[in-house]
């Protein structure tokens, strides 16, 4: 992922934006004065990202937070901002091997509960939940708040149900092991068929 972003520090007395060419290389976000420069002027290890936030009143903007800095970034368009969020979001999901199962599983269950709550208000959307993609920006915001604030953020009913469904898919895909092993999958499908058949009698 690469492209120009306007960048400024929210912790500095210097509040003006500066245009930078940004490049994600391996696990580092690099900043250059311009495309083609051989040496970056700054960098951020992606594993240090603790949060990403959007500004509803400024659809081109997002804020990146690390333990030591807060950086506001402005993309050329809302679509470009969403692409950057999608690229950076994966680094907000914990990469600590000790947390790789416990945290995503807990959060997957929390988001599944959110989906259930939202579908209670809009039951006609149930069959489309995992087929229709939600807003990239809202999905990113939901996941970022979940991983930085915790499941309490999911108590709000203001989330879009399809964004919640997209967040659920994103977390499940991040699990190091499938929810069902291949050995159990066939039996699960068979049981599902029996239940479906009984319900249609």
Features:
5 helices, elongated, disordered C terminus, 201 residues, PH-domain like, 2 domains, alpha+beta
Give a brief rundown of this model:
Helices cover 40% and strands 21% of the residues. With 201 residues, it is of the alpha+beta class.
General description of the model:
This protein has two domains: 2-92, Roll (PH-domain like), CATH 2.30.29.30; 102-180, no CATH class. Helix content is 40%, strand content 21%. It contains five helices and seven strands; from the N terminus they run E-E-E-E-E-E-E-H-H-H-H-H. The chain has helices spanning 78-92, 102-121, 136-149, 161-174, 182-199; strands at residues 2-9, 18-25, 28-32, 42-45, 51-55, 58-65, 70-74. Strands 4-3-2-1-7-6-5 form a seven-stranded antiparallel beta sheet. Helix 1 packs parallel to helix 3, helix 2 (102-121) runs antiparallel to helix 4 and helix 3 packs across helix 4. The radius of gyration is 20 Å and the shape is elongated. Mean pLDDT is 79; it is low at 95-101 and 194-201.
């Amino acid at each position: 992922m690469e492209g120009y972003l306007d960048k400024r520090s929210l912790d500095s007395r210097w509040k003006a934006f500066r245009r930078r060419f940004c490049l994600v290389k391996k696990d580092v976000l690099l900043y250059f004065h311009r495309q083609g420069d051989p040496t970056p002027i700054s960098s951020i290890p992606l594993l240090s990202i603790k949060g990403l936030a959007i500004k509803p009143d400024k659809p081109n903007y997002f804020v990146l937070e690390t333990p030591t800095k807060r950086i506001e970034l402005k993309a050329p368009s809302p679509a470009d901002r969403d692409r950057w969020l999608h690229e950076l979001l994966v680094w907000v999901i914990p990469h600590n091997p000790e947390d790789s199962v416990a945290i995503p599983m807990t959060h997957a269950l929390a988001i599944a509960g959110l989906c259930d709550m939202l579908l209670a208000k809009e039951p006609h959307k149930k069959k489309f939940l995992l087929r229709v993609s939600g807003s990239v920006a809202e999905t990113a915001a939901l996941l970022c708040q979940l991983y930085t604030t915790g499941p309490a953020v999911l108590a709000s009913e203001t989330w879009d149900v399809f964004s919640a469904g997209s967040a659920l898919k994103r977390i499940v895909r991040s699990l190091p092991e499938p929810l069902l092993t291949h050995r159990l999958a066939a039996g699960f499908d068979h049981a599902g068929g029996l239940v479906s058949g009984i319900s249609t009698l």
